[in-house]
Specification:
The protein has 3 helices and 2 strands; from the N terminus they run H-H-E-E-H. By secondary structure, it is mainly alpha-helical. The chain has a two-stranded antiparallel sheet with strand order 1-2. The two termini are 15 Å apart.
């Protein structure tokens, strides 16, 4: 039997999981056209809650140009990094 994880590690794991959920919600909301006050409020909240983490990665890794569109790889990099960090501390 292993020892129970300490409270700071548990809280860090929850914070990482919350950030992963916010990133996924942000991605899903980006697929829909804007509309309604509730949608706009949730969208604004997820952008404000995640942009501080995505912006530095986006500066290091600019969006990949694919013809007439751009693929933002910062989302994928941050999502993978958070998932690895969460599995490492678990």
């Amino acid at each position: 039997m292993g020892a129970a994880p300490s409270l700071p590690l548990v809280l860090l794991g929850w914070a990482i999981t919350a950030m992963i959920v916010l990133l996924i919600v942000r991605a899903v909301l980006s697929w829909f056209p804007p509309g309604g006050r509730l949608f706009e409020s949730v969208n604004r909240f997820t952008i404000n809650a995640t942009e501080w983490l995505l912006a530095p990665v986006r500066r290091l890794l600019p969006p990949l140009q694919l013809g007439g569109m751009a693929l933002d790889l910062s989302f994928l990099v941050v999502l993978v990094a958070l998932s690895l960090l969460r599995s490492f501390i678990a």
